[in-house]
Amino acid sequence: MEFVKKATLLSGGVDSICLTYGLMPDIAYTIDYGQTVAEREIYVSKYICELLNIEHKIIQINCRSLGAGTLAGADNLRFAPSEEWWPYRNQLLITFAAMMGIKDGVSDLHLASVKSDKFHKDGTEEFYKLINDTVSYQEGSLKVHCPTLNYYSHELVSKYNVPIDMLTIAHSCHISNLACGKCSGCLKQLKVRHELKID
């Protein structure tokens, strides 16, 4: 019988917390790739993994000079679909996590993109099919999964029966380690809280 070792990419936002809680992987990776909010993302992710007794690893590779938009503290490119858009970001993060995962004996890497992410090309079914084909084709045959694509964030909470108090620590801000309350990440989290009737 083939051994399956599962990993999640955990950013400390609502979606990745829900997936990690529902999947209970063997290991979770948080990546500091030079984003403006890395410190808080690492803090929240570490806290969640301690609560769930999941091994947590931080991957640090500073790519800020390659980024654009609010997550890089830089100007948007003219064709950016949103203010936080960072060129090839999901591809970059999946590559870093897969590189670490292969060394850790991971067979399946799981990510959380939701319905509202589909206006990004790298938040679509087609992207995840292509990236899985590319990664699994290579040595190690690691597979990439995104089981959350057909759900909105608040639906994930119900799907995985995530305790509400675990979500109150989630950090989705794209600008600051203290939530600004105005960026698209903060507005998304406020919308989720409203839909879940969290005060």
Would you mind describing this structure in some detail?
Helix 1 (14-23) packs parallel to helix 5. The mean pLDDT is 91. This protein is α/β, with parallel strands linked by helices and 199 residues long. The N and C termini lie far apart (47 Å). The chain is globular and about 45 Å long. Helix content is 38%, strand content 11%. The chain has helices spanning 14-23, 38-52, 89-103, 125-137, 153-159, 164-167, 184-195; strands spanning 6-9, 27-32, 55-60, 108-110, 143-145. It has a single domain (6-195), classed as HUPs (Rossmann fold), CATH 3.40.50.620. It has a 5-stranded parallel sheet, with helices on both faces.
Provide the fold topology.
Elements: E1 6-9, H1 14-23, E2 27-32, H2 38-52, E3 55-60, H3 89-103, E4 108-110, H4 125-137, E5 143-145, H5 153-159, H6 164-167, H7 184-195
Parallel strand pairs: 1-2, 1-4, 2-3, 4-5
Sheet with the most strands?
5 strands, parallel
Predict the CATH topology: Rossmann fold
Q: Provide the spatial order of strands within the biggest beta sheet.
A: 3-2-1-4-5
Secondary-structure-derived class: alpha/beta
Distance N to C terminus:
47 Å
State the helicity in percent bands: 25-40%
Whole-angstrom Rg = 16 Å
* CATH H-level homologous superfamily name: HUPs
Instruction: Give the uncertain stretches in residue-range form.
Output: none
| CATH architecture label name | 3-Layer(aba) Sandwich
- Total beta strand runs: 5
Number of helices: 7
Task: Give the overall average pLDDT.
Answer: 91
Q: Choose one word for the global shape.
A: globular
Number of domains: 1
CATH first level: Alpha Beta
Order of helices and strands: EHEHEHEHEHHH
The proportion of strand residues reads 5-15%
GO molecular function: ATP binding; ligase activity; metal ion binding
Enzyme class: ligase
Pathway: Purine metabolism; 7-cyano-7-deazaguanine biosynthesis
Family: Belongs to the QueC family.
